[in-house]
Structure formats: C-alpha cells, structure tokens
Design goal:
Oligomer: single chain
Number of helices: 28
Strand content: 15-25%
Strand order of the largest sheet: 1-2-3-4-5-6-8-7
Number of strands: 41
Helix content: 25-40%
Distance between the termini: 17 Å
Largest sheet: 8 strands, mixed
C-alpha cells in the first residue's frame, strides 16, 4: 500500500512491514501498516465487532468510534505510534497498536524503550490465530524502532487475550492492579518464543496444504462445452478417480439452461453454484484468470490450482502477471498451486482426488511426491506405476509462485499416510527454511531430493527466487547435514524411494549377497565396494537353484548377525527341458516374501535379469499399508575417524515404518506396537532393480540416512566452555566502530591488525606478521619475534602460493633472512609490490583452511579443507550450516576425502583434531552472533600434534543482511 501525502513527516511508509501470513486454519491474510486512507475501513471493521469485544478493548461500553478516535487510530508516525491491520479481501479483520511510553506510562519518544500495546479482533475471526500472528509482527516492528518491552492492560475475563500473551514464549511478568491484569513482555526473542513461532508456522502451513489436498468440493473453472481441452480433461480425471466430494463445472460461456456437463452441475460462475466450494481448478486463458480468481475469492473458495500458463516462464511481463495473481489470491485468503501447474492427486480412500492432467490416478501408497515440473511428474508417476508402487499424494506446482516444497514438508512431517517424501526441485525459494524443515522431517521419515538446474547459474524460467552463489557441491553437503537424501537423477530418486518405503533401515554397511549367478553376484559385490559398503563374499546358489533354495538362503542371510542387509540376485533358471524359465517371477517372489516375513528386520533388495513378473509380484502385497518401525533409534556413538567402521549404536528406526509385523490400516495412527513391534520384514514390497548398481546405490543411501538418524537421536551442542572465552558484547562494539555510523552497503575488509583484534575476542589467536618493506625492517622484525622465522609475500596474486616461491621457511639467523629477502625480490619483484612480512615459525603440522561466509540464499556456511591443492584444485572441502554443534565440527573434519592425513596416514602422528574442532566452533559462533561478519578465512591453520597455529586471517564486515528465517512468520514474496 502506498503512503499518502498526509502521512507523518517523521518516517516514510514502511512497506517492508507488509506481509502475507497463513493463519491457524490454513487460510491466508495480509498484515500491513494502517494509513490515513483507512478511516472508512476502520469504522466498518469496528461496527462488526461485538459489544463484549469492544468492552474488553476499552474497559467500558464503547458502541462507536468518534471522529477523534478514527483520526488517532489512522494517523501514525511509524516510530512512536504504530498501528497494523490484518486484512482479507481488502477489509480489516483485526488491528493492533502500540504507543511509546516512559517509566510513568505517559506518551514518550526515543530513547524510551517501552510501549503500550492493544489488540482488537473481529469476533468472526477469533480462534484463527490472528492475534498471535499480529503479536509476532508488532513485536518485530517495535524491536526495529528500539522498543524492548510491551506493557498491556487486560481485563481478567478476557482469557483469550491473556492466553495470546502467555503462549507467545516471551519473558513476561504479570500483576493484578486496579481490577485488571498488568502484563509486561520482554520483546527479545527467546528459544521458547522461536519454538512457539515455528510450531504455529508448521501447523498453519500444514493445514493450508491439507485444505488443498482434501477438499469437500471442487469446481473446475474453464470446462469446455465440447469434449477435449484442459478443463474438460481435468474434470473427467476428477470423476474417474472416484472423488468422494461434490464436483462442479464452470464456464462463463455455458448457456443459462446448460444443466450438467459430464454428469455434474454446470454453472456460469462459481458464485452461481450457491454452495461452499473448497477448491477451484483454474484452466482459463491467462487474461481471464483475474476474473476467475475474483469470482472464487468472493465466494470463499479456500484454494486454487492454476493450470494456466503464460506467467513468469514468459519473461518480465509474465513475471509481473504472476505477482499480481498471488497478490489477488492472497487478498482473499486463498493459497495457490501453480501457475503453469500439472495438478494435484490424493489417493486417500476418504478423498480419491485427481485434480490433474494425469489420465490415471496412481495406486494408493505411502510415498509423497512433489515436483516443480509437470514433465518430470509424469515420468515419475509412470516409473512408479511400472514398478507397482503407490503414492499418498502428488503435487506438481509448476512455477510454484505460492505453495512450495517447504509447505509440503510441513504437511508431510505430520501426515500419517506418508512414509517417504520425494521432491524434484529446480529452485529453493528459502534455502534456510528448507534445510530447517527438512532436518525436522528427516528425523521421522526419509526426504529424497533431486535438484534440477544445478549448474546453470540461474533459476529456471518462472522461478523468481534468490540465486545462490555457493556451488552445487556445497548445496549437496548442506542437504546431507539436514538429513536429506540427495540423488542426481529421477531414476535414483524412485529407486531410493521404493527401498525406503518398503524396507526397514539397515543397522550398518555390511551386505550379504546371494543368487544364482556368480557373475551378477560379483557385479553386485564390486558395486557395494564402490559405494562404500562392506559386502560379504557373494553366495552362489548356482543356476540350478529353485525358489525353495532362494527362500532358505535368504532366511539364513537374514538370521546371520554379520550382515545388516541382503541383496538377492536372480537370473532365469534352467528347467528340466533345458530351457530358461523366464516367467516364474511370481513363484520366486512368493518364496522371497515367505523368507522375509519370518526373518529379522533387515532390508532386502532384489537384482534381477529377465525375470518376468518378479518386480510386480514383489511390490504387489500390502502396497498401501503403513510400514511399522522395528525398533526406536538409539543414541549415536562419538564420531569415528574411520568412515567405513561399523556403528556400534543401536539400530535406527526404519524409515517411517517398515518393520516386519502386520501393518495398520491406511490412515491409522501408528501405535507403540507398530512402531516398536515384533521384528520381521513386511510381507511383500521388496524392491526389485534391473541393475546391480541401482540396487546398491539405493541401499547405500539408506545406510547413510540410517547413520544420520542415529546421530539425529542425540543432536550435538555448543560446548559451554566457549562462553567463558568469548566477548560477545565487546565484539559488537568493535564491529560498530569498524563499520562506522554510515557503513558502505558493500562492506569493507579488515586490516591484518583489525582482524587479529576481532578474532581474539572470540578466542582465536592469529600469529603476528610484521611488515618488512626492506631488509633492515625484516631483520628488526625477526629480532622482535625470535628466530627461526618465515618470510612471505602478502600480495594478492601471491598469497598462499608457496609453489610460486613466495614463502621462505625456517630462517634460523640474520644471514639466512637477508639472503632469502634478496632471492625473493630478485625472483618476484620489488618489495612494494610483494608486501613481504616476517612471522615466527609455527610447529610442524598439517596445513588446513577454515572459512565462513554468508550466502544470500543459503545463509551462513562453515567450510573446512586441507590448504592448497586438495581444496583448491580437487574441491575437497566440507561444509556445514551455521550455527555448528560439536557433532557438526567433528563430522566436518572427517568428511573430506583427505581426512586420513589428520589421523596418522602412513604412520605419521595424528594431529590435534580436538583443537581444530574448537576453532571451527569459535568461528561458527562469531558469524552466528554477529551477522555483520560476512566472511572469515583462516589460512593456513597449521594443526600440530598438540595445538594449532593460525598464520593468516582475512575478515570482511558489512551491514547485516536480512534474516527472514528469524523474523515473524510470513509467506515469501518474489
């Protein structure tokens, strides 16, 4: 909303306070500052508030607002007097206001840091979480304006408002004075207030998706009068799926007496239906979409699936059309899937919704699928169908202007009908939020992701989101830190999804291999080694083996305590007449299911060649039943330097269910019996693969995910001892001084001495380097530091390039130093160009590099690698999101390929990794506590057998970027 000419001269209209939010029931609303143009809206809003609510607001009967009241409540300076309104359809449904006060409760200006706050919510919208959302936003506004506390007077009978304050999670004090409850809230965010905010966000966004996937009624807008066309196709698919709700056909061109289309009521508008419509599928030309959205919004439709193309994928004009579509829909409280969407499917027997262009609904199953591409969605649906797998829900979001993968993670986190979440993503609108939600969801069920557009350096057409500067390898590492199973292809996503949905998680990497083909067994064995698994020698049953032999061998392998998983390889066996039996896949499947049903809970996968009907037969049994878990995840052991060593921790719980006991009915909440019930593979649903590499890769992903689940059961922490050696307040003051009162938005690099001083406040000591502009200065510096010393250049083109001869080490005396100085300048150039420095020698050790930087999209990232070629040439660098825990730091240094160098490779002495982990934690704390520190690079960090030495450091400061993940909850606006 634009500011008006009458607005206060104190401050411009703060449009960054505008936000779309999802309410408790899944609907949306808009929060914005109140302006002088809102007088009529305010009066109309107040007239719809009950006398009781007015009494609670003003502590007396107050039937109407006076002209003076209206002026007061619509004129704000946005500094000391602020008012926000919640709107739906452009009309107010709630307001909140604060006035800055002094210690005596009188009107005041800054530096007074307390304000009186008051809310008013229309009775028809109470209970939707409106006041809770308003409190989050008005508190953020107050903090921005230097207000640290809210004071509120509430009548004792106003229990709803008291509960809003009490449940917010802020530190608060309460007292009873003069017949009212006096509340004081400290507005500094706390762990509790952040947890409350995120829990409300999860419930609201999950509910908004549920309303889309489980409507009681659907209107298809744009159904053609003749067969064919997108709208008519969607309507036919909806009816063919057996949708349990009411369906309507809508087209403005229908005759008044049209009656029905495809057997459902036909209307010229949604308004003409005369009944509640929960979901509208919009399939009209782009220029007619605004009219359709307005029609839906005026009738209270809860959500839209917009199949229409011609939006952001068509360039600048289309991008603006897409923004306007989202603004219009949200103004009515509706959420959107699309535009340019393929549609949505919900296979639940209670809904049976196919509001998509897919001509056939998939089987009901336990896999949820989200894609940002209709073509990819079609391919995955086809692949799952061929392999006999089913889905719980399918969402193809197209340009995903509103509903995104983050919303589906919120929904799937608590959805009892989904055991595995598969996502094909081409862009991440809010990577910080994605990793946070993915970590939480992955702790209870697997999340498998394929990331498209990995190397293009830009977003796909139609996806107007921030572009991350970090490489794809870093994105992959951060996903794995969050427990996401990142795969490269859609085929791998399906392969992993089938194994995780049908089998329990493995206890470790040990794999038993058995089958009737020695060659296929050896291929499987080699594939296991390539994926980091620990296979046992294959057991060859010979080509004469029949189904009974397979059953017995599988039962033995499952009972063997030296294996954690079993891969069965099968080729057609030779019958009595000497011909290959290619059609006995069903017989073999029955034998394998029989053995799996009675054995211990271990994952089983089958690799087959030309076994007719085997994959379908293995997947046929109980494909829609919930997978119980075999046992709870146990605490994780400490990090192991040997990545191949088996874990001694108790086994992780299977992925979302999948133990071997009888499965509960679809939609039935898991009980303790099903979660921790008797061990034994679930009969049926053994995944089958046409190639050994595919089966092994899926199993390897399950092994890594199971290990992550065990670690997630005992999350890391930031050691308390760091607090005693960190000067957070002093560092904040130093940063303010270094940036100055009017900092350059681009920031500034710190000098060597400034960086040393800043890092020292966080317990990071950087070895002094004294400038040596001439030989005499070099000798004087060495005398001050003490021999032996190092002489090195600091010119940008030579920094950290010992291979170019810019470093001389172990200079034991003045003669050696003078000789090296002359050699350096003769070889590389004049001292003014080289900028040489002298530094005391550090103990011998392994040269490493520690970095932290802030990416606009992904947030703060901590990185580690060995200095020089391993990290720079080979890209052997590991990454973790900030803030890092002790477990993150330990895993970080063990996850690079060159990690053995740190742990005594080829007989060398192991270095002090504990000191290295502490350094990583200190750097993480620095950038997490002070977002103005946008980059830190410590290079080299020489890690010796006892302690470490930081020889070089560079730090860059800049005004802190916005942290959307820490502010009040809001829907993204692209």
């Amino acid at each position: 909303m634009e500011p008006t000419g009458e607005q206060s001269p104190h401050h411009a209209y703060p449009d960054h306070w505008e936000a779309d939010v999802v309410l408790r029931d899944g609907g949306t609303a808009r929060i914005r500052p109140i302006t002088t143009d809102d007088a009529d809206r305010l009066v109309s809003f107040y007239e719809q508030v009950s006398d009781e609510s007015k009494y609670y607001r003003f502590f007396a009967p107050y039937p109407r607002l006076s002209a003076r009241d209206v002026h007061r409540f619509t004129h704000h300076d946005y500094v000391d007097r602020v008012g926000l309104a919640v709107t739906i359809g452009g009309e107010f449904i709630a307001t909140v206001r604060f006035d800055r006060i002094d210690e005596r409760g009188r009107p005041a200006s800054a530096p007074a840091d307390e304000a009186e706050v008051a809310f008013l919510v229309q009775d028809a919208h109470q209970g939707r979480g409106v006041a809770s959302a308003l409190l989050e936003h008005i508190a953020a506004v107050a903090r921005e304006r230097g207000i640290r506390r809210f004071a509120a007077e509430v009548l004792p009978a106003n229990n709803k408002m008291i509960k809003v304050f009490r449940d917010a999670g802020f530190t608060q004090q309460r007292s009873f004075e003069d017949g009212s409850v006096h509340l004081t809230l400290d507005l500094e965010p706390t762990a509790e207030s952040l947890a409350v905010q995120r829990a409300r966000e999860q419930r609201a966004e999950a509910r908004s998706v549920q309303r889309l996937l489980a409507p009681g009624s659907v209107a298809v807008v744009g159904v053609g009068r003749a067969p064919g066309g997108v709208g008519r196709t969607v309507l036919r698919n909806l009816l063919a799926s057996g949708f349990t709700g009411r369906a309507y056909a809508v087209n403005t061109s229908f005759a008044e007496d049209q009656g029905t289309v495809e057997g459902v009521p036909a209307h010229r508008s949604v308004g003409g239906i005369g009944e509640q419509v929960d979901l509208a599928v919009v399939a009209v030309p782009a220029d007619r979409v605004p009219e359709a959205v307005a029609d839906c919004g005026e009738q209270g439709v809860q959500g839209l699936v917009v199949l229409t193309a011609g939006y952001a994928e068509r360039g600048t004009e289309g991008r603006e059309r897409q923004r306007e579509l989202v603004r219009q829909a949200r103004s009515y409280g509706m959420r959107i899937i699309g535009p340019n969407a393929f549609g949505i499917i919900n296979t639940s027997d209670a809904v049976r919704l196919n509001a998509s262009l897919a001509p056939e609904s998939p089987k009901a199953g336990r896999i949820g699928l989200f894609t940002q591409s209709g073509a990819i969605g079609i391919a995955v649906l086809s692949g799952l169908h061929r392999r006999g797998a089913g889905l719980s829900a399918f969402i193809s979001a197209g340009n995903r202007a509103d509903v995104s993968g983050n919303d589906l993670l919120q929904y799937w986190y608590e959805d009892q009908g989904t055991d595995v979440a598969l996502l094909y993503l081409e862009s991440l609108g809010n990577p910080r939020k994605f990793t946070r939600l993915a970590r939480r969801t992955a702790a209870v069920k697997p999340v498998v992701v394929v990331k498209g557009a990995r190397h293009s350096g830009s977003n796909p057409p139609g996806h107007a989101v921030p572009v991350s500067r970090i490489p794809d390898a870093t994105v992959s590492a951060l996903m794995r830190q969050a427990g996401v199973i990142r795969v490269d292809t859609v085929t791998e996503m399906v392969d992993a999804g089938l194994l995780l949905a049908g089998q329990p998680l493995p206890d470790g990497p040990r794999v038993a291999i058995l089958g009737n083909s020695e060659s296929l067994g050896l291929l499987t064995y080699d594939a296991c080694l390539a994926e980091g698994l620990r296979p046992r020698p294959p057991r060859d049953l010979t080509t004469a083996a029949g189904p009974r032999d397979f059953r017995n061998a599988l039962a033995e392998a499952l009972a063997d305590r030296t294996s954690d998983a079993v891969i069965v390889t099968a080729i057609p066996w030779v019958g009595e007449n000497g011909e290959a039996e290619t059609g006995d896949g069903e017989v073999l499947a029955a034998a394998l299911r029989e053995a799996a049903a009675t054995g211990p809970a271990k994952p089983v996968a089958v690799v087959h060649v030309e076994m007719g009907g085997l994959a379908q037969a293995l997947a046929a049994a109980t494909s829609t039943a919930a997978r119980p878990e075999s046992r709870p995840a146990g605490p994780a052991p400490g990090p192991n330097p040997d990545p191949g060593a088996p874990s001694a921790a108790p086994s992780a719980a299977p992925a979302g269910g999948g133990g071997r006991s009888e499965d509960p009915a679809p939609g039935t909440p898991a009980t303790d019996e099903h979660v921790n019930g008797p061990a034994g593979p679930a009969a049926g649903r053994i995944p089958a693969y046409p190639a050994a590499e595919r089966a092994v890769r899926a199993l390897a992903e399950a092994v890594k995910y199971a290990q992550w689940r065990r670690h997630a059961a005992a999350p890391g922490k930031v050691p308390a001892f760091l607090d005693d050696t960190i000067d957070e307040h002093g560092t904040a003051g130093l940063i303010g001084t270094l940036l100055g009162p009017d900092p350059d938005p681009r920031g500034r690099p710190l000098t060597h001495d400034e960086a040393r001083e800043l890092l020292a406040r966080y317990g990071v000591t950087v070895r002094a380097a004294l400038p040596a502009p001439d030989p005499e200065a070099a000798v004087a510096a060495a005398a001050k530091l003490g021999y032996p010393v190092a002489l090195k250049t600091t010119a940008p083109h030579l920094r950290h390039r010992a291979d170019l001869g810019g470093v001389r080490l172990d200079l034991a005396n003045e003669n050696a130093l003078r000789r090296s100085y002359d050699e350096l300048t003769d070889l590389l150039g004049a001292p003014a160009e080289l900028r040489p420095v002298v530094q005391a020698m550090a103990p011998r050790g392994v040269d490493t590099v520690v970095r932290a930087s802030i990416d606009a999209a992904a947030g703060a990232v901590l990185s580690f690698g060995l200095a020089g070629a391993p990290s720079e040439l080979l890209g052997d660098t590991a990454h973790r999101l900030v803030p890092a825990t002790d477990r993150d730091a330990a895993e970080l240094i063990r996850s690079i390929r060159a990690a053995p160098v740190l742990f005594g490779w080829r007989g060398s002495a192991p270095v002090d990794t504990a000191a290295l982990e502490e350094l990583l934690l200190r750097v993480s704390r620095l950038v997490d506590d002070h977002p103005e520190v946008v980059s830190v690079a410590l290079e080299p960090v020489v890690v010796a057998t006892d302690g470490l030495t930081v020889l070089g450091a560079s730090v860059r400061l800049a005004p802190p970027p916005a942290r959307s993940d820490l502010g009040p909850r809001r829907l993204p606006s692209y």
